Every structure is written in C-alpha cells, then in structure tokens.
Amino acid sequence: MKMTKICPKCGGTDIVRIDGYSGPYGTGNNIMVGNTIFSAVNVNRYVCCTCGYSEEWIDREELEKVANSKKAKR
Fold this sequence. Notes:
Elements: E1 15-18, E2 30-32, E3 40-42, E4 44-48, E5 54-57, H1 63-67
Antiparallel strand pairs: 1-4, 2-3, 4-5
C-alpha cells in the first residue's frame, strides 16, 4: 500500500498517510528505542479510506535505530 497506493484488501486507491509523531511522556505513534523521547522512532500509518485497512511503516532512515536498539528481540 505504501509503494503502490493500492489497498491489498479491497483494491481501493484512496490511500492517506498519517505521519507518526512523538509527544509528551512518550505519547504518539512511535517506538521508543532508548530511554528518552529523543530516541523515539516514528511509525507512519497508511489507511485505505475505502475499507479502513491500515498498515504501519517506519521510514528507511530510522530502521538502523530499531535494529540496533537494546529493546529489540530477535
């Protein structure tokens, strides 16, 4: 959905992106990879406005932070 702009569930093309954010006290749509809000990695949502299906994606530049996080389990 992120790349094709087509919903994999219904085939709809009315796709919107809701940007992730980091708010006070860790609120928002993010992943905390450290102990402070400054270490948060934002998680963006892509939503199909036809059927409501959604996906969450992390920007490529942030993936290394997640992979190197001590909180990540493999």
